[in-house]
């Protein structure tokens, strides 16, 4: 019994630790937990001001003049006196509507507070490293002449990474961002939405689409500085994911998650039969220090045919996940020849 309990405990810990936070705030949205893994749902009184967690979860909430279907969202008790019940929210828009005036569906959305608060989705870095933050803010309203908001990325509250204004239906309805930032574990990146240039929170719901990737250094063909790839005889292409003081590649990377090629999503990882059970297949990967910095790196083999390089390609992309679910992406140059 004691052992069974211990097993259960270990098994449940494993479940928790492998619960995947792929750094997609839409897919991972929760109205049960706040904070929720790497995500916190909240607000600040001013841009970069002190952050408070939203304290009120509303499941399937139907706005008085909003979605025709309900929305799962967080708000704060300080917003409940506002007249239309949609101030200061972070939620997940329903997948469709029976005719309300909001687009796009099925994304995370943010609305600033009715007393001037910024709606803030906060991401807390699970690991030190350089990350890429790629996505957009998009006004969701067709009423009111469109959403009118100011949108921002802030590193550790104070440091601006991106600022834009959302308004109208054409040029300024969507603001795209693509920024890289080196962070320490525990640092925060805030995605903040405020009232915008019209000084009102009405019709301000703004959709956030976001992808976050950790960017470890990689080395395509560690023994070849030119990274030459022959399209006629592609063979196998070794790719090393380099470790750093903060990132132990062999321990952190889920080998079977790796994809590599001209785009990065090619299922080109090479497998071989397992040593102990030939019915199982193992990724062909080794552990060695390829750059002589004293830190062991992870080197995996990829099928050159499946990697799909074309003569015009100048770089290759590796994608994968860590054991904690963080998505990783690395790029290195290639020289593609016939
Ligand atoms: Ca506004
Ligand atoms: Ca190389
Ligand atoms: Ca190394």
Please provide a brief summary of the model.
The chain has 338 residues and is mainly beta.
Question: Can you tell me about this structure?
Answer:
The protein is mainly β and 338 residues long. The protein folds into two domains: 19-212, Jelly Rolls (Sandwich); 218-337, Immunoglobulin-like, CATH 2.60.40. The chain is 7% helix and 40% strand. The protein has three helices and 24 strands. The chain has helices at residues 2-18, 249-252, 304-307, and strands at 39-44, 52-53, 56-61, 71-75, 89-92, 108-111, 118-124, 129-139, 149-155, 159-166, 174-183, 188-194, 206-214, 218-220, 228-230, 236-241, 259-261, 271-273, 281-283, 285-288, 297-303, 315-321, 327-333, 335-337. A seven-stranded antiparallel beta sheet has the order 3-4-5-6-13-8-11, with no helix packed on it. Strands 2-1-7-12-9-10 form a six-stranded antiparallel beta sheet, with no helix packed on it. A hairpin with a 7-residue loop joins strand 18 (271-273) and strand 19 (281-283). It is elongated and about 65 Å long. Residues 1-20 have low confidence and may be disordered. Bound molecules: calcium ion (CA) (3 copies). One calcium ion (CA) is lined by residues 242-243, 289-291, 293, 295, 297. The site of one calcium ion has 7 residues, from strand 14.
